[in-house]
Amino acid sequence: MASTAGSASGMQNDRVTIDMKIGQMLIAGFRGLEVKPAMPIIEEIKAFHLGGVILYDRDVMTGSPVRNVKSPQQVSDLVAGLQVASEIPLLVTIDQEGGLVDRLRPDRGFPSSLSASYLGGKNDLDLTRRRAGAMASNLRQIGVNLNLAPVVDLNVNPNNPIIGRRKRSFSDDPTIVTAHAKAFVEAHHEHDVLCCLKHFPGHGSSATDSHLGFTEVTDSWTPNELIPYTNLINSNHADTVMISHVFHEKLEPEYPATLSRRIITGMLREKMGYDGVVISDDLQMGAISKHYGFESALRNAINAGTDLITLGNNQVFEEGLIGRAFMLIKDMIEDGRIPTERVEEAYGRVRRLKGLG
């Protein structure tokens, strides 16, 4: 799906440097409503060849209700300005699930949305398709080309603070989740918007929120949580897959899923046959940042099989974060801690996702 292809000159094989390949692995969050020449994100796009950006409605760190989203025209202008600054077309991402996870809200001039829980409860696939189509049409109009949705977690624990209570799951039934996720993805594809299945291998059974800290699912997770992924991969409805920060001791005794080669490469790629782009959940979330050093997290996530590293810079804000991540990755490639082949593999997948060959 050539959703980002425009001026692809920066992706010609004979011009691609290792710096470009590293940069294409990074998705950056940023502050600002409009493009300005000295804006840090513009400098980072140009200096580090960023693969993409992620838009947020509010700034968690400061408590400001406005970060990147004020109105449809404002977002459209912002995204257009970011694309102009980038030699390589950007993935412009957002968490627009519907319901409570709704970055584009009616009070800012955007259409209303329905939660996955509501749609799954109605179990009317035509309704899901229509609402997802309206959402995707709006995303395309403002320049967003990758929606970090749908959630395909099963509603195993209705009291789960980040999935169940927030009405983010279609159902506890994998058949219903699969059907509605498929309708959601197909509706987005009709408007040339990519999707992301999340949060692999399943966040629906957890009792805690991985945004805040360590999230254990060893005793609550079941293999049924893989069924929607298996179905959607096999039916070619998995543009990208986001890996969660959950910890499952029996699947991986040492690391959370985001940092686990056993889970990403062993389970998702080798056992389930997925060869598309793997996206990390935000590496600044508490489940990672409170337990692993930044350098270690980057190394393990990439070596585990992650192709796109998300650095939202929102829950916490670090000036110069993107440059630091870029240089750490480059240093680890140069000294062999990250194999060059792993970066080449990730770059190839991102290139295909962007429709650039």
From TrEMBL:
GO MF annotation: an example: hydrolase activity, hydrolyzing O-glycosyl compounds
Keywords (A to Z) from UniProt: Glycosidase, Hydrolase
Pfam family, one: Glyco_hydro_3
Keyword Oxidoreductase among record annotations: no
Domain Glycoside hydrolase family 3 N-terminal intervals: 17-353
GO BP, sorted A to Z: carbohydrate metabolic process; peptidoglycan turnover
Hydrolase recorded as keyword: yes
Gene3D superfamilies reported for this sequence: Glycoside hydrolase, family 3, N-terminal domain
Family: Belongs to the glycosyl hydrolase 3 family.
PANTHER family: BETA-HEXOSAMINIDASE-RELATED (PTHR30480), GLYCOSIDE HYDROLASE FAMILY 3 DOMAIN PROTEIN (PTHR30480:SF16)
Annotated protein name in UniProt: Glycoside hydrolase family 3 N-terminal domain-containing protein
